[in-house]
Specification:
Layout: H1 2-13, E1 26-43, E2 46-65, E3 69-79, E4 83-97, E5 102-118, E6 123-140, E7 145-153, E8 155-163, E9 169-175, E10 178-186
Antiparallel strand pairs: 1-2, 1-9, 1-10, 2-3, 3-4, 4-5, 5-6, 6-7, 6-8, 7-10, 8-9
Length: about 190
């Protein structure tokens, strides 16, 4: 029985049985993010809106298929003056080659965000869904290095934090759209 299990494992990991490895055509990247959070504050029956900007970074793994499609998983962290946002997103893009070095892309994304306040008067957080789309361009520098610039439109759903002071105040994040610049490494 052990020999059969070992033979099956060898069969699955051998190059002839597994034509493409999980990391073939994959790219690791780091992104510098400039994110804008649209907030609605509800307190004592009054609603006010504002926009705040934060900066952060993202780490991601891209998987390319036929150099036309890209599937992506990203984890990011953005810091604001009064709160922080961490996101886990997956996306799919369609690539449009312009020439041998530049491609444009557009796609859709979905995931979740964790927003946390750490203020002297309160400490709370909320989790909610994030979705949307992205547009951008990729420049292929050489076989191992790429640069990417893009915009991500990211409406949110359900990211609401209750604040104790003043009483019955709810802060909702309605949008986490961002611009970003990435350095990508191909192996």
């Amino acid at each position: 029985m052990q020999k059969k299990i070992i033979m099956l494992l060898i069969l699955f990991i051998s190059n002839s049985a597994n034509a493409e490895g999980i990391l073939d055509n994959s790219i690791f990247g780091i992104a510098l993010i400039n994110q804008s959070a649209e907030r609605e504050t509800t307190s004592l029956g009054q609603v006010s809106s504002d926009s705040v900007t934060g900066t952060g970074f993202g780490l991601y793994l891209d998987k390319y298929v036929s150099r036309k499609y890209r599937f992506n998983a990203t984890i990011s962290y953005v810091s604001y003056d009064a709160f922080d946002v961490a996101q886990l997103m997956v996306s799919a893009d369609y690539l449009i080659p312009i020439d041998g070095q530049i491609s444009l892309f557009g796609g859709v994304a979905a995931g979740g965000a964790l927003q946390s306040y750490a203020d002297a008067s309160f400490s709370d957080g909320a989790v909610g869904a994030v979705y949307g789309g992205q547009l951008g361009g990729i420049m292929f520098i050489n076989d191992h290095l790429m640069l990417e610039l893009g915009y991500r439109f990211r409406p949110t759903s359900g990211i609401e934090t209750e604040v104790l002071t003043p009483a019955n105040t709810v802060i909702s994040i309605t949008d986490l759209s961002e611009t970003y610049f990435s350095i990508l490494l191909m192996f």
